[in-house]
């Protein structure tokens, strides 16, 4: 078992990437991701990590370098946020469609304008349909553990897809937490060497990134979708194996005091910890409230979610981004779509909370639940908006 | 390629669209894109070979034994450059299917 260290989450994540003996890091610094790549460049410069650190001129180039390095069979890592992800977006889709394993640390930040460096989920929702495996983290330990898990899942030949780790900017990236470290033996036992499905090598010539005529595009997309949706067993197995090593057991969906709850709060990321306090407060007041925490956003664990949500009368989704002009905010829309054909389904309410870094306290969560339960319409609402 | 592209199922496509057999682009007949077809009039042709030089798809070659030009309609997209460049109008573009 590794030692427990009081450390900033970004630095711990970079240490984890170093422990995975990554071959290539290509990234452009952007708040609030900066500390991750800064520390990785220090590890490479000091000789502690034998890797290529590519200080690219833009995020578009960062993701392009990552595609190239993954294509030759190198273990690949990048990190970005908001506008950086927006600039990357073109190649983000290409990485997953070409089934190139790599891990991205995404420090979730609001998209401009107005220019904001603070946390929400609008950046990640922009690429939710890109065909990456996408996980959310609630605290620093989860972020640290997710690095090892993500490399293992991404590089598994049954999966061969890139993995995006969503880490709430500042709320998680810049906080100091006690984190239990892994040692080299644990990583060696957990993470096998990267053996790509196919790679660019002069001994066996092949082409990657060919164009697809209308006769073949749909078949490629179906194959990609099936690869993503059938990656779940590998993801779950990765968490099971980790539990044996560390004693920490993760799953696709987790609950807190939800067994008999009439009302369920539904959340992703660091707001889950805030919500657990809110649940305790409401339970003390005798209210039947629980929490559903979603870790695995893509592929969505549809069966687990349907079973959990069907038992509730009301579900209050805390959406961390707004989909302008849409039927609803992204996570609410998805939960409604998921439950639409169920014979027994809850009312699903939407509360858009904490966009652009607006603070959300446990009391805010309590207020949002009360507002949702007394609302007359079922539209989306930005909580706390003035006017 | 093991199978023509338009017969492959999603289970049969290579992961990530990798092309594991190099040079297979020639198995795709771009001649199917053609809407106009060049017709060669051997009796007018002066054998200057300008069409051979100008063809962007290398679909026209000289046959020295038979002393004439030969068209490869598998890859001729019917762009009409040969007909445009011919100094004696020995190539006529006609609608496909006529």
From TrEMBL, chain A:
Residues 17-225 form the Pyruvate flavodoxin/ferredoxin oxidoreductase pyrimidine binding domain. GO terms for biological process: carboxylic acid metabolic process; response to oxidative stress. SUPFAM superfamilies: Thiamin diphosphate-binding fold (THDP-binding), TK C-terminal domain-like. Signal peptide: none annotated. Gene3D superfamilies: 3.40.50.920, 3.40.50.970. Keywords: Oxidoreductase, Pyruvate. It comes from the Bacteria. Residues 261-365 form the Pyruvate:ferredoxin oxidoreductase core domain. GO terms for molecular function: oxidoreductase activity, acting on the aldehyde or oxo group of donors. The keyword Oxidoreductase applies. This is Pyruvate ferredoxin oxidoreductase. The gene is porA.
From TrEMBL, chain B:
Residues 36-65, 67-96 form the 4Fe-4S ferredoxin-type domain. InterPro entries: 4Fe4S_Fe-S-bd, 4Fe4S_Fe_S_CS, PorD_KorD. The keyword Ubl conjugation does not apply. Pfam families: Fer4_21. Its cofactor is [4Fe-4S] cluster. It comes from the Bacteria. Transmembrane segments: none annotated. Keywords: 4Fe-4S, Iron, Iron-sulfur, Metal-binding, Repeat. GO terms for molecular function: 4 iron, 4 sulfur cluster binding; metal ion binding; oxidoreductase activity, acting on the aldehyde or oxo group of donors, iron-sulfur protein as acceptor. PANTHER family: PYRUVATE SYNTHASE SUBUNIT PORD. NCBIfam families: PorD_KorD (TIGR02179). This is 4Fe-4S binding protein. It comes from Desulfomonile tiedjei.
């Amino acid at each position: 078992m590794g030692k427990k260290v009081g450390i900033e989450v970004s630095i711990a994540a970079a240490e984890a990437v170093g422990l995975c003996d990554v071959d290539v890091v290509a990234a452009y610094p952007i708040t609030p991701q900066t500390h991750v790549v800064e520390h990785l460049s220090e590890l490479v410069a000091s000789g502690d990590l034998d890797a290529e650190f590519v200080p690219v001129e833009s995020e578009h180039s960062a993701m392009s370098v990552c595609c190239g390095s993954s294509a030759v069979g190198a273990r690949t890592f990048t990190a970005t946020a908001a506008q950086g992800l927006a600039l990357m977006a073109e190649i983000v889709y290409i990485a997953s469609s070409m089934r190139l394993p790599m891990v991205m640390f995404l420090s979730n930040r609001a998209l401009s304008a107005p220019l904001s460096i603070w946390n929400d989920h609008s950046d990640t929702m922009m690429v939710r349909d890109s065909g990456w495996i996408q996980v959310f983290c609630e605290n620093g330990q989860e972020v640290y553990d997710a690095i090892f898990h993500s490399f293992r899942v991404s590089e598994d030949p049954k999966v061969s897809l890139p993995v995006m780790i969503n880490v709430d900017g500042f709320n998680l990236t810049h906080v100091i937490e006690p984190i239990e470290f892994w040692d080299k033996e644990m990583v060696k036992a957990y993470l096998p060497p990267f053996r790509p499905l196919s790679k660019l090598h002069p001994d066996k010539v092949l082409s990657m990134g060919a164009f697809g005529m209308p006769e073949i595009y749909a078949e490629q997309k179906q194959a990609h979708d099936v690869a993503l949706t059938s990656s779940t067993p590998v993801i779950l197995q990765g968490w099971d194996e980790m539990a044996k090593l560390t004693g920490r057991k993760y799953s696709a969906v987790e609950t807190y005091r939800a067994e008999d709850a009439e009302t369920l709060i539904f959340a992703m990321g660091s707001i889950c910890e805030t919500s657990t306090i809110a649940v305790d407060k409401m339970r003390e007041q005798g209210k039947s409230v629980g929490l559903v925490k979603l870790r695995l956003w893509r592929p969505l664990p549809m069966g687990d979610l349907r079973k959990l949500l069907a038992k509730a009368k009301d579900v209050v989704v805390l959406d961390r981004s707004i989909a302008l002009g849409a039927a609803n905010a992204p996570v609410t829309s998805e939960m409604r779509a998921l439950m639409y054909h169920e014979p027994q389904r809850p009312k699903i309410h939407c509360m858009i909370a904490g966009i652009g870094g607006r603070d959300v306290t446990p009391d805010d969560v309590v207020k949002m639940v009360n507002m949702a339960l007394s609302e007359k319409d079922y539209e989306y609402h930005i909580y706390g908006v003035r006017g | 390629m093991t199978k023509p592209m338009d017969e492959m199922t999603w289970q049969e496509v290579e992961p990530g669209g990798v092309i594991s057999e190099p040079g297979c682009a020639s198995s795709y007949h771009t001649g199917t894109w053609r809407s106009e077809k060049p017709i060669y009039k051997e009796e007018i042709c002066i054998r200057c070979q300008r069409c051979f030089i100008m063809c962007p798809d290398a679909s026209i070659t000289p046959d020295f034994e038979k002393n004439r030009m030969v068209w490869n309609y598998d890859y001729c997209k019917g762009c009409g450059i040969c007909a445009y460049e011919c100094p004696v109008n020995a190539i006529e573009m006609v609608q496909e299917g006529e």
